Amino acid sequence: MSEHWEIMTFDAESRRRVEHKTEEGKKEKYFLFYDGETVSGRVILTLKHPNKRLEHQGIKVEFIGQIELYYDRGNHHEFVSLVKDLARPGEFTQSQTFDFEFTHVEKPYESYTGQNVKLRYFLRATVSRRLNDVVKEMDIVVHTLSTYPELNSSIKMEVGIEDCLHIEFEYNKSKYHLKDVIVGKIYFLLVRIKIKHMEIDIIKRETTGTGPNVYHENDTIAKYEIMDGAPVRGESIPIRLFLAGYELTPTMRDINKKFSVRYYLNLVLIDEEERRYFKQQEVVLWRKGDIVRKSMSHQAAIASQRFEGTSSHTEAKTPSQTAENNSRQ
């Protein structure tokens, strides 16, 4: 098909674009949307040869949200699928523009490109033809905003090896937004082994599949050195770990029963004989709404306000989170 055509959103000039990692590991910019926002735009079909006729069996545009597991290529799990017919079967002799609007679209999950799974949202325009359909796609990125109450319990634990090592560590919160700072301290109650190095790792664990086919992929996102040298009994080591510099996503639990993404703080001690001692603790990460800028669309402003303003005293939890918290108590 020699004709040129494209999909674009109505508010392309004012809508914010964000970087998102592609499957190849590159970063590209996409239009940003939130849950409940209208997705609207136009399909532009430009005929390169005005005198040539273009016969078709109809034109449609779809809004699709889908999950693809890399071990099951070609089998796409669609959790959002909306369609609008733009033109009935016929023919074109000149360029055409078709407007479309998907009103207040539910976008329940955040866009995600992982090591074994991809969750994407995209617009797909199709010109149906007798021999082969002509298809054009445009990806968008969806961010899921959350709010948590100010009451955010700290993590406090004692760990050790009997008669060798006894330490107490504390993190100021158990839930952190993606630009937050982890503040904590480590207190040495008993030290009878020669520790030469100590660090905190941020570990991302991506879980895909179900039942016997569950696969875990651990990825160390950050290594933060706490101490180099041997501590003494009674010593206290402060921790300040800034999250903004790392590539993090919100915690995702049981997304469409296909995958999960969870984060852990891993406290690692290494002694002079290169033995490693570690203690792992899960933390919840969440995305905080940015300050609403004038350049953002009115709908984006409403979406941000809905998450930031009206829910200040309620904690955004999935049913699995609620059950997990109850079980901990």
TrEMBL record:
Polar residues composition-biased segments: 307-329
Coiled coil: none
UniProt-listed Gene3D superfamilies: 2.60.40.640
Highest taxon of the lineage: Eukaryota
Swiss-Prot/TrEMBL keywords: Protein transport, Transport
GO biological process, one term: intracellular protein transport
InterPro entries per record: Arrestin-like_C (IPR014752), Vps26-related (IPR028934)
Region feature Disordered, mapped onto this chain: 304-329
Family of the protein in this entry: Belongs to the VPS26 family.
PANTHER family, A to Z: VACUOLAR PROTEIN SORTING 26 RELATED
Protein name: VPS26, retromer complex component B
Organism annotation: Apteryx owenii (Little spotted kiwi)
